[in-house]
Amino acid sequence: MTTLITGATGFIGRHLAAALTAQGNPVLALMRRPDRLQTLRRRIDDLGGDGKLLAGMAGDLDLPALGLQGEPPDINVVVHLGATFAWGLDPRAARRTNVDGALAVAELARRNGARLVMISGFMMENNAHLQRLGISPDDPDGADWRRVYTRAGAYEASKLEGALRVRAFANRHGMQLIEVQPATVAGHSVSGELDPAQPLFSLIDNLAHGRFAMVPGTPAHWLPLVSVDGLAALIAAAVLAQTVPERLLALDPDTPNLAGLLAGIAAELDRKPPTRHIPIALLAGLLKIPGMPRLMNTSAESLHFLQTTRFNTSVTAAFLEAQGLKWAPMEDSVRASAAYWRSHSQAQSAVAGEHLHLRRH
Known about the structure:
The protein has 361 residues and is of the alpha/beta class. The chain is built from 13 helices and 11 strands.
């Protein structure tokens, strides 16, 4: 079984490619720079996969029809992980990659008669949030997307729109679509490996540098998490299993509330955790003041992912059990992630110190 992965060079994509190739399954990576295939193969090997089973194919989510020159070799499954992520994205750029690019990937899967595994996000299951934004999951054309992009920010809005339009596309064409909906990604449950571009890495960095004077929200607020290795194993199972639910909410319900999460990170870093709370609305107002987002290393867009909503994860739990899988304890992933941040920070400081030494001499 050959699986085409978009976003294979990214944090989740590397772990997924490792999980699939470790089981002897060939992977084809859609890459802007296929000349970097050997580097990616080495990273897959380092993660316990088999880099020899990884091939590359030139393509770009930002180009019409993915910029492909001809059809790919026979593929059985397409996993769409690729996306543009940042706070403050230009709406047109976000839509080009996260909506138009996603539809181009869906069309590629349709032409090849392949199962499509679409990686969306856990906010797709927050019905109250969708209603506040004026989104009906069954009618993407009925939403005022200009308003949604203004209210939610271009990243979240484009991910929501892309997922809903791919759903509609798959329904029109009778395709097999499986939607995996990840929470915020934590580090590896054992090694703690966490990409610096991930929001949890920034949260740990902010706590370590004293930028968390108070806990955002209330004691009911939490940041739903899933470990990267747990997520990769779930997606791999969605690729390989014969029978898979249409939607899999990749969210560990044992994630602590935000105060507990910050306390766990603080304990690992030997810091004092914040205990008082600040209302989300007040914090969002502060972040509208020029210069405050940079000073606090926080974007108002990121506050949308702090939840009081609890989610029904029974479908995913049953699928995990059927596949012989289970989430590692989230406290282990959080502790390992904080330890990884510390070692990464120390390594960066050592490199900076060496550069300073060389400049002086």
